[in-house]
Design goal:
With about 200 residues, the protein is α/β, with parallel strands linked by helices. A six-stranded parallel sheet has the order 2-1-3-4-5-6, sandwiched between helices.
Length: about 200
Amino acid sequence: MTGPIRVLLADDEELIRAGIAALLELEPDIAVVAQAGDGPSAVDAVRAHRPDVAVVDLQMPGIDGLAVAREIATVSPGCAVVILTGHGRPAHLQRALAAGARGFVPKGAPGSVLADVVRRVRAGHRYVDPALAADALAAPPCPLSPRELEVLRTAGPDTPVATVARRLHLSAGTVRNHLAAIVTKLDATSRQDAHRIAADHGWTD
């Protein structure tokens, strides 16, 4: 490989984005070639600049980091994606890897760690924060079906059943049955408690 590793940074918080860029620019073999403040802009920047590595925040306006990772896999398969997050949970890690991300790093990691991760994923390797990897191994799998998760995300803690039914094109009775099954599967005391449990595990994010 010749020349520096070309990196795209995508984060909706400009101060964080600028700080990461400044840290990476200290590395002689890394060049930040583009920055983006939201998901769609990140995908457009990948098309325009063809970076080797995209460092993408998990939660961004427009489309989130996981959707960005999937888009990048289509528009620029040679670009390795690193998910950077301040809200790392085992479920996030699992979905990030499924979306094609090659790295998963907490925002609190030292700049030297991120630079090393950029090098690793550019070389074709993977990197997952060790503490998060340990948590993911110990975490219970989500017991809810994809449809139940969709119902729970739409319902939240207190959205009326009729509204949920209309949004998902289901009958009110079907929504009630799903919510009852969700409460049972999560061993929750109520719909609100079920939503809290799922959110704590990152299943509804």
